[in-house]
Amino acid sequence: MKILGIGSRINHSEFGKGVVTNVSNTSYWVTFIENGLETIDLNSNFEVIEAAENEVDTISLYDVERSLREILKKWSDISEIVPIGDKWKGGKMILDPGQAGLASKEIPIDTFFHKIIMVRDRMRVMEQKINASNLEEIEKVELQQYITRIYGSLTTFNVLFKSNKDFFVGEKSK
User: Fold this and answer.
1) What is residue 115's three-state secondary structure?
2) What DSSP assignment string belongs to 41-58?
3) Are 147 and 126 a contacting pair, CB within 8 Å?
4) What share of the chain is helix, strand, coil (3-state, %, to 5)?
5) What is the distance between the alpha carbons of residues 96 and 84, in angstroms, rounded to a whole number?
6) Rounded to an integer, what distance in angstroms lies between the CA atom of residue 161 and that of residue 157?
7) CA of 116: how far to CAs of 68, 84, 129, 164, in Å?
């Protein structure tokens, strides 16, 4: 069975004349003149008025989105979505100076949390770049130890995370 491409014109016994507007692994999405958009099986009974070449691989939007997410995660410093703990949503941090006469500063916790996530994600990218670099193994190990200590310093902020799978983890006690 030859798959029709987008733009193919067909005549369906139930829906009438239409144009193929999308193709999936199992069906055509056809916009019919009289009946609007309908989904029909690839092997349903219809007459081909004019076939257009199927020039695209038929993959789902879900597969495209999943692949794009993986590529962005691997090659950029774009953050994954990490949820803040429910008890902190909409909260604020108040920075109260110890010096008399200075005003306090309020910062939305969500904003602060986003900055912490950005630091974590950039640390991960730096870690990947170190591991992929041409540095000597001993230099990589030394830099990795610094990164682990930085993560350890950031464990204070773990209280903000909704899930412990997102926590900062430093060097384990011996």
Assistant:
1) helix
2) ETTS-EEEEE-----S--
3) yes
4) 40, 20, 40
5) 23
6) 8
7) 24, 11, 20, 15
Q: ∠ CA 114-77-128 to the nearest 5 degrees?
A: 120
CA distances from 43 to 12, 38, 60, 114, 117 (A): 12, 15, 19, 50, 49
Which residues lie below 8 Å from residue 39, measured CB to CB, with a gap of 6+?
Answer: 27, 28, 29, 30
Residue segments in the chain with a per-residue pLDDT below the cut of 50: none
Whether 150 and 123 have beta carbons less than 8 Å apart is answered as: yes
Q: What is the DSSP letter of 85?
A: P
Which residue, among 108, 89, 113, 91, has the nearest Cα to 166 in the 3D structure? 113
- Strands of the chain, DSSP E: 9-12, 16-23, 27-32, 36-41, 46-50, 92-95, 105-108
For residue 108, the cross-strand partners are 92
Degrees to nearest 5, angle at CA 79 with 137 and 171: 40
47 Cα distance to chain centroid: 41
Return phi, psi of residue 19, to 5°: -125, 135
Length in residues, the chain: 174
pTM of the model: 0.53
How many secondary structure helices (H) and strands (E) does the chain include? 3, 7
pLDDT tens, residue by residue, 64-75: 777 777 777 666
